[in-house]
């Protein structure tokens, strides 16, 4: 009994050492961390490196807050915590300071400021009665020529989700991801006449990922070994909001330079031409951008020629069907972005080991539907009919299939597909037996070459 007890203690000790080693390897926190200065985003540096104005602009921000009313998503019950930080006005003021273009003035808590100034006046009047009255007066408050308004107007949960996993004999691993999206609107308003001078809007995705591995195995009778490891990482919402706000401040500065709304602070736009050109290039790229950072384009043209290499296997009335290699050449005509008519010719080999082998020349006609014609990666399905020619009379068949296409270049697509052929009669191999028609399964890999204009 003691030996068993000692062996169990030893096994637990080894397991704890392995767990600690894995913790260090994966970079998991095991000790308390000291407080640090806040992280910078990529736009913090860009704001600090902006060309300076001739003179800073006094600007006021009364409130720039969460306007979404969105709560954190929860799988178990209600969650009354807000999805967006409530201190976005403070984040905006910090971004304005970092840009070195503005002099932000206190307006969010103006009542506190006015109250404190009143206390100062009362104290001076009480203790400095005989002093010069002019020494008792406070200097006037700065007033803003421009106000900044707007806020966080959207927080969209689960804009994109997905994952990948596999398990074999109790050993498995999986990964999952989720993308949320936050949207910021920022506008500059003239205090002279209330005119809205400029409005900009930015968005930022918030990524959450997890990686998990597990082992589950019976190693002996009534002996079960189970192990798990996992890592989850969530992008901080506060940093995402900060990055979106800083991007909006930079965009507002550049838009103001272009439209000359900053007055005497910018006397020569030529001094800022580098940042203007960079901003315009980003706008040009952004014209075709969709949610998910996708850029649709006319990768596929009006016509296409293609060639495939196929693995083919028959399902007929004989036993021991054999896999063979064949090929296919064809032509496509797109009468709409999604639909095309395909004509092809292929070599198909029917073979049952040591029984029958027959080669067919098969022309086919298909109608194909492409799901995402303006994206590099798109699934597709098709169906049609064909005629099988050999040294016997022609056989007629139907076929349907589908696959995936990835555009390697502007007019070159790599395709992987599978096709199922069904005969109209049960006589491909010359034997009629049973009710099931002769069939075939094909797997293909090939290239599409697009030509012509869309």
Report on this structure:
With 454 residues, this protein is α+β, with helices and mostly antiparallel strands. The protein folds into two domains: 43-69 and 83-122 and 141-287, ABC-type transport auxiliary lipoprotein component (Rossmann fold, 3-Layer(aba) Sandwich); 303-451, Porin (Beta Barrel). Helix content is 22%, strand content 43%. The protein has seven helices and 15 strands. The mean pLDDT is 83.
Notable characteristics:
single chain; 454 residues; alpha+beta; Rossmann fold; Porin; 2 domains; eight-stranded antiparallel beta barrel; seven-stranded mixed β-sheet; elongated
What topology emerges from the helices and strands here?
Blueprint: H1 2-25, H2 42-48, E1 57-61, E2 65-66, H3 88-99, E3 102-106, H4 110-127, H5 133-136, E4 146-168, E5 171-190, E6 196-220, E7 223-234, H6 237-259, H7 273-286, E8 303-315, E9 324-334, E10 339-352, E11 356-370, E12 377-388, E13 395-409, E14 412-423, E15 439-451
Parallel strand pairs: 1-3, 1-4, 2-4
Antiparallel strand pairs: 4-5, 5-6, 6-7, 8-9, 8-15, 9-10, 10-11, 11-12, 12-13, 13-14, 14-15
Helix pairs in contact: 2-6, 3-6
